TrEMBL record:
Gene3D superfamilies per record: Dihydrodipicolinate Reductase, domain 2 (3.30.360.10), NAD(P)-binding Rossmann-like Domain (3.40.50.720)
Organism the protein comes from: Lentinus brumalis
MF terms in GO: D-xylose 1-dehydrogenase (NADP+) activity; nucleotide binding
Family statement: Belongs to the Gfo/Idh/MocA family.
Protein name in UniProt: D-xylose 1-dehydrogenase (NADP(+), D-xylono-1,5-lactone-forming)
């Protein structure tokens, strides 16, 4: 399903973003991309087409020919055969890093030391220790560093968050977030299965923790009560799937939150790939049961159902633009990544962004991931050695 959503995202942004390409401002932010990963097109290249304040001006790979091929495909002016070359380019203001998980911290650190602002793919780093060190450097350098939890920038997320915070349905009692991909959709040769690159389902599908924390307004859980990993047959250190129960202290109340990530989801009846399963979260409050379908890619399609326990009625909401944080900014065709880019540019330019993923939140995110891995017996992930 993740691959299908990525393809649909690309098509959506290509059709709308390309047709809505704008004239670039003379002082546009010049962004370089570290890696030629497939996600780059949806995450930064196409969103930048409709933003006058952004130019994707360079891409780097460890293989120059690969970088050149990628640059030609997406009309990127410069290609580099090493990441250091791009970072040493004075004409680059910021970088988007979509390298394997275990390399995030190292190259974000190098980018900050080179004076670049950083839009860093999730997960932020390999573990919490590395996250704290990276945050300290960003603060010292007075540069912008943000974890690319793009879904949090979308109006649908803000609408539900405002509904929960408003108290209409009472306090949150429990949550259950899940994300899966069908068995075989991510080949075993994929980097996401490699322990040396800080791979595993929870690392890749860290959205289940991100969504839980965001809607609870919480940091690190009081405890991880239980965590069960399903290791891969190839490497018992890597989780094919992870289930966990987290307990959060929310305003003095204990909330039980379950999470489930699965990068090798067994077929229904042993035959049918579960392509209908998209990232979702169920939130039960005192007076309602709320379900957010496809919270990760709400710009493609989503719905929020609210079952009122008191009236026994169900209402459905959808939000593609506006909302309590963006107001009259944004367009219904903007992707989560386009909203994220808008906020990133605002932050770099010293303007107040409509939404932001704080550095403290990213540390708490990695602390939670560490806690789950340690409770499962697999142990926390490690940075990839140089």
């Amino acid at each position: 399903m993740a691959m299908l959503l990525q393809l649909t995202t690309f098509l959506t942004q290509y059709l709308y973003g390309s047709n809505n390409a704008v004239t670039k401002q003379p002082d546009a932010l010049r962004i370089g991309i570290l890696s030629t990963a497939a996600i780059n097109s949806a995450a930064i290249i196409h969103p930048a087409k409709s933003h006058g304040g952004v130019i994707v001006s360079a891409v780097a790979s460890r293989n120059l020919q690969q970088a050149q091929k990628f640059a030609k495909q997406y009309d990127i002016p410069k290609a580099y055969g090493s990441y250091d070359e791009l970072l040493n380019e004075p004409g680059i203001d910021a970088v988007y890093i979509s390298l394997p998980n275990g390399m995030h911290g190292r190259w974000a650190r190098k980018a900050l030391n080179a004076g670049k602002h950083v839009l860093l793919e999730k997960p932020f780093t390999a573990n919490a220790d590395e996250a704290r060190s990276l945050v300290q450097l960003a603060v010292e350098k007075k540069l912008i560093l943000v974890e690319a939890f793009h879904w949090q920038f979308h109006p649908a997320a803000h609408a539900l968050k405002a509904l929960l915070d408003g108290g209409k349905y009472g306090p949150i009692l429990r949550t259950y977030a899940r994300m899966t991909t069908p068995k075989g959709s991510i080949p075993r040769s994929d980097i996401r299965w490699q322990f040396a690159l800080a791979g595993g389902s929870l690392m890749d599908m860290t959205y289940v923790i991100s969504s839980t924390r965001y809607f609870l307004g919480a940091g690190t859980p009081r405890e991880v009560a239980d965590a069960k990993a399903r290791p891969t047959a190839e490497d018992p250190r890597v989780d094919e799937a992870m289930e966990a129960t987290l307990r959060y202290d929310v305003d003095g109340r204990m909330v039980e939150s379950k999470i489930y990530s699965d990068m090798w989801r067994p077929n229904a009846f042993g035959l049918i790939p579960r392509i209908w399963e998209t990232p979702s979260i169920e939130i039960e409050t005192e007076h309602a049961i709320i379900y957010f379908y496809n919270f990760m890619m709400p710009h493609l399609y989503h719905y929020i159902t609210i079952y009122d326990k008191r009236t026994k009625t169900t209402t459905t909401e959808k939000h593609y633009s506006g909302g309590p944080q963006w107001g009259n900014r944004g367009e219904s065709w903007w992707s989560t990544y386009r909203y994220q880019l808008e906020a990133f540019v605002d932050m770099v330019r010293g303007r107040e962004p409509a939404h932001w993923v704080t550095l403290d939140s990213s540390i708490a995110q990695m602390e939670t991931i560490d806690m789950v891995y340690e409770k499962s017996g697999l142990g926390k992930r490690l940075p990839t050695p140089e």
